[in-house]
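Lab meeting, item 3. Inverse folding demo.
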């Protein structure tokens, strides 16, 4: 379909149906351009909680749209592609997680927001990479803690908070793919550059970083730090908004091990959403995200605790 037609129709339907388009920073550029709000998981959760729209078009992956539905049971939440998954959420199934919990009784369960409603419902607290340190810090020091599903973020939090965490062995396929050798090679060619990394990255990448933080943390760091060149170790989609905000700075996506062509890391799950799918889901109000009420109520509790703490 013609791009101009899609844009016109999305804008018309949005108005007609009182819809809001929330897009994650990892969405493709066309979707970011038409979105009402662009943000990371925490920012979009808050937007979803405060919106007056009747329909939330969530341009992101399934667990994000599901979180929006948990927060907004009376609103219709649609996702451009129902198969937009996440290696972290998909790698933590409720049956196995229940067994994992049973092996570690008396532990406070903290889960990263990148998990399904079923996993959230089994959690005491949910966190994002923006507030994870604060959430772990809110737990009394005599309590033992399970952290799932991201072992890289969990290891980073162990070091930062000096707390012993029992880690679920999951990881993000994008952040796990960064190559230290190639990163060093780029850094040697740009010795004044600063390296900014997301804590979902492996520890050897984090050790090389000048700054470690969430997507929005990395954006703020690059906007405010005086350096002129940055190597960015997170999903390459954030470079779109960033390059508009700091056109005078050079932004280099961190290279991945697999990638010998464009040297950038993109999340294939995020990129299944397209402008055409966004148009169709707004037009047809489908695929819709539905969460049964008893599950929603249980999954909401740890999210609400997170929002109160952050
Ligand atoms: S970038 Fe990683 S954590 Fe984010 S949606 Fe993709 S697979 Fe999941």
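The presenter then showed the designed sequence:
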């Amino acid at each position: 379909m013609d791009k101009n037609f899609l844009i016109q129709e999305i804008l018309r339907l949005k108005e007609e149906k009182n819809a809001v388009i929330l897009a994650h920073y990892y969405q493709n550029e066309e979707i970011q351009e038409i979105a009402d709000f662009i943000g990371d998981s925490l920012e979009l959760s808050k937007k979803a909680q405060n919106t007056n729209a009747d329909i939330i078009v969530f341009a992101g992956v399934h667990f994000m749209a599901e979180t929006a539905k948990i927060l907004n049971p009376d609103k219709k939440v649609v996702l451009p592609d129902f198969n937009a998954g996440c290696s972290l959420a998909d790698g933590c199934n409720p049956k196995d997680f229940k067994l994992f919990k049973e092996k570690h009784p008396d532990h406070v369960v903290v889960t990263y927001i990148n998990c399904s409603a079923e996993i959230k419902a089994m959690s005491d607290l949910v966190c994002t990479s923006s507030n994870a340190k604060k959430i772990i810090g809110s737990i009394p020091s005599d309590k033992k803690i399970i952290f799932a599903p991201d072992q890289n973020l969990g290891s980073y939090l162990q070091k930062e908070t000096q707390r012993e965490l029992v880690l679920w062995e999951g990881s993000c396929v994008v952040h796990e793919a960064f190559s230290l050798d190639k990163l060093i090679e780029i850094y040697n060619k740009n010795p004044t550059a600063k390296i900014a990394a997301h804590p979902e990255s492996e520890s050897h990448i984090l050790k090389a970083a000048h700054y470690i933080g969430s997507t929005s943390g990395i954006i703020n760091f690059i906007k405010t730090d005086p350096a002129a060149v940055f190597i960015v170790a997170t999903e390459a989609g954030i470079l779109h908004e960033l390059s508009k905000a700091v056109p005078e700075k050079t932004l280099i996506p961190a290279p991945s091990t697999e990638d010998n062509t464009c040297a950038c890391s993109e999340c294939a799950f995020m990129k299944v959403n397209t402008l055409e799918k966004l148009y169709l889901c707004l037009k047809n109000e489908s695929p819709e995200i539905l969460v049964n009420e008893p599950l929603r109520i249980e999954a909401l509790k740890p999210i609400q605790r997170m929002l109160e703490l952050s």
